[in-house]
Amino acid sequence: MSFDDIVAQDIKENPILIYMKGFPESPMCGFSALAVKVLKLYDVPISARDILGDLNLKECVKAHTNWPTFPQIFIKGEFVGGSDIILDMHQASELIVRRFYYQVYLSTILILNLKGQLKDLLGDIAQKHEQKESS
Ligand SMILES: N[C@@H](CCC(=O)N[C@@H](CS)C(=O)NCC(=O)O)C(=O)O
Ligand code: FES
User: Strand 47-50 relative to strand 22-23: parallel, antiparallel, unpaired?
Assistant: First the structure.
């Protein structure tokens, strides 16, 4: 099996694959460690290959993606990028989630406020209605 075949098979068979320095449990570089840390936040199975021990594999991966550095992350067969890109993607998704909760919070305040106003308004009518009935 050529190294090209190994890379092609790796990418095909593993939904999340990192070519990295070291292994997920023992990264040998801060950039690789960061990529693993971000992916671990999503509770997904992470497959990895250590490129430090195999220069041929390393060169083959670089040629395959035309990307000069490691880590290199593949998700569902697609090359995504390195640690900067995966961190940016994570932070962007965090921002969307935070904005969503903020919107829900604002909407809840608004609904409670309207409900309070309606209660005051109707309460007044109900009181007058009661007074009329008793007189
Ligand atoms: N900004 C890069 C950082 C990765 C990086 O600069 N990696 C370097 C140092 S570990 C690298 O792989 N250099 C090429 C090499 O060691 O062969 C990213 O987003 O992944
Ligand atoms: S091995 Fe030195 S920065 Fe990655």
Answer: unpaired
pTM for the predicted model, two decimal places:
0.83
Which residues, other chains included, contact 21 with Cβ-Cβ below 8 Å and sequence gap of 6+? Answer: 27, 28, 29, 31, 32, 50, 51, 52, 70, 71
Could you give the ipTM of this predicted complex? Answer: 0.98
Residue 62's beta-bridge partner residues? none
Report CA(31)–ligand 1 centroid distance (Å). Answer: 7
Q: pLDDT-based confidence at 103, cuts 50/70/90?
A: very high
Residue type, 122: L
Which residue's alpha carbon is nearest to atom 2 within ligand 2?
29
- The annotation status of 29 as a binding-site residue, yes or no, is yes
Q: Which of 36, 69, 85 for a ligand 1 pocket mutation test, highest count of atoms within 8 Å of Cβ?
A: 69
> How far apart are the two ends of the chain, measured CA to CA in Å?
98
